[in-house]
Automatic annotation (TrEMBL):
Keyword Signal carried by entry: yes
Location of the NAD(P)-binding domain: 161-280
Signal peptide: 1-25
Name this protein carries in UniProt: NAD(P)-binding domain-containing protein
CDD domains given in the database record: SDR_a5
Gene source species: Chaetoceros debilis
Lineage, opening ranks: Eukaryota, Sar, Stramenopiles, Ochrophyta, Bacillariophyta
Length: 333
């Protein structure tokens, strides 16, 4: 014997099903996640950018790191991070014309944040000599240890021309190949001055060696500016491993900040916040700016990072790269 539901009950169930389907179909849906490539994701600034993006529901970060050890550490340090969020590759050797050399996970990315940089290493023997001279310097009324007299070097294949110029150009070309719409580049303040102390790192006392880190960074910046991609170029002052959001942000252009008596310090956390904020509030506007932390006036609160960036963008202050030709000539590059 077979049983069938009464016709009225069947009609009611059908109507209910249609109603539920309609509600699901037309209910507001959360915006799709933006896939963001973070290069140098294991570095001191890159890891903060990567971690910040992981914690925000509207972003899906893909961290590029150089070694398996770095990948394991990132996954261990971030509960939200899975194996699919991290890829191991040498960004200085990426070939945008060779599909086989590109990590599969980065395809379909909407933005790229470049946090790679050559890292100078201190010559330990030279430091030891300087420490031995410290008491003599004190007796003579001099500074015990002058940081600018120390000697630095870059690991083989990791000098500024290779990392900050060739490597970043490879990343910018990759962004174009992938159809990325917005590139954020973390660079450094001081690029308008070829005599800046940072350019001496990696050179000997006669000026020979693999240095000129700010010059090579600047050349990569100009390549990005002329690439046709939307860009945000961030020039932080002296980076400090301090909490973010505790100080006011001063944004300016053309190294004007360097002329001030301020300390020229910048929290890495605040740099990471600016990277993320640029993806949120820039719209289609490209920008390049210097940034440092300054004290918050008594009785006031610091502006949220996004507000500080919006106010800078609204002012439409632009960075002048036209002087770079003179810089190239003076450095014989």
């Amino acid at each position: 014997m077979t049983y069938s539901l009464p016709r009225q009950l069947s009609s009611l169930l059908l109507a209910t099903s249609i109603l539920l389907w309609s509600c699901e179909s037309f209910a507001p849906r959360p915006p799709p996640q933006r896939k963001v490539i973070v290069t140098g994701a294991a570095g001191r600034t890159g890891k903060l950018v990567f971690s910040s993006l992981l914690k925000q529901a509207n972003f899906y970060p893909m961290g590029l790191v150089k070694s398996e050890k770095s990948a394991k550490k990132i996954i261990k340090d971030n509960a939200e991070c899975g194996l699919e969020n991290v890829w191991i590759c040498d960004v200085t050797k990426l070939d945008s014309d060779n599909e086989g050399s590109l990590p599969n996970g980065i395809r379909g990315s909407d933005a790229m944040i470049i946090c790679t940089s050559a890292v100078p290493k201190l010559r330990k023997r030279h430091l030891a000599k300087a420490l031995l001279k410290a008491p003599i310097n004190m007796l003579a009324g001099k500074k015990p240890l002058d940081f600018k007299t120390l000697q630095f070097y870059f690991a083989p294949g990791q000098h500024p021309e290779k990392v900050d110029y060739e490597g970043q150009i490879a990343q910018i070309d990759l962004a174009k190949k992938l159809g990325v719409s917005h590139v954020v580049l973390v660079s450094s303040m001081g690029g308008t001055n070829p005599d800046d102390f940072l350019n001496t790192l990696g050179k000997d006392k006669d000026g020979n060696g693999d240095g000129d880190i700010l010059v090579w960074k600047r050349k990569a910046e100009r390549y990005l500016v002329e690439s046709g991609l939307q860009y945000t170029i961030i020039h932080p002052g002296h980076l400090k491993d301090t909490p973010g959001g505790l100080s006011e942000l001063w944004l300016d252009v053309d190294d004007n900040i360097m002329m001030s008596p301020s300390h020229h310090m910048m929290s890495r956390c605040d740099v990471a916040r600016l990277c993320v904020a640029s993806l949120k509030v820039s719209g289609g506007q490209s920008s390049s700016f210097d940034c440092i932390n300054i004290d918050v006036p008594e009785g006031t609160k610091s502006r949220p990072t996004e507000i500080a960036l919006i106010e800078f963008l609204d002012a439409e202050t632009t960075y002048d790269y036209s002087t770079d030709r003179k810089l190239d000539y003076s450095m014989n590059i």
